[in-house]
Structure to design on (133 residues):
């Protein structure tokens, strides 16, 4: 008569694989402290971007213009950064969120420029409720 262990080899390998994957995951994205839905988050980001990047006359953002599209029927409110003198041109940066809790995305060629890392840091900070420039 053969005695079976409480866990099969398959169950042990699945548990080990899950533990390994959990250890390899990066830290979770910061959670929004004020309003976890997409629209409130994007409203905060748009207000902060306007105040800190544009109203402050930051020279790094002089060539660009902010184009908010917060009233989205697709459920993805977004803000665009476009060329100042060609607002109809393709956006250089798109910042959008969807869902509740909101999942934030930012993409476009401007993020590959020297200003990109600063933008990413600002957007992350603002999305969590921090209003500081």
């Amino acid at each position: 008569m053969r005695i079976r262990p409480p866990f099969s080899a398959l169950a042990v390998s699945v548990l080990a694989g899950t533990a390994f994957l959990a250890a390899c995951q990066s830290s979770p994205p910061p959670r929004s402290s004020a309003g976890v839905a997409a629209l409130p988050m994007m409203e905060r980001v748009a207000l902060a971007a306007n105040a800190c990047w544009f109203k402050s006359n930051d020279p790094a953002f002089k060539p660009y213009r902010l184009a908010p599209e917060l009233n989205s029927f697709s459920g993805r409110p977004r803000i665009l950064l476009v060329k100042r003198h060609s607002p109809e041109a393709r956006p250089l940066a798109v910042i959008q969120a969807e869902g509740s809790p909101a999942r934030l995305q930012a993409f476009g060629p401007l993020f590959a420029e020297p200003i990109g890392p600063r933008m990413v840091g600002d957007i992350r900070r603002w999305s969590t409720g921090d209003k500081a420039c």
Remarks:
- Residues 59 and 120 are 18 Å apart (CA to CA).
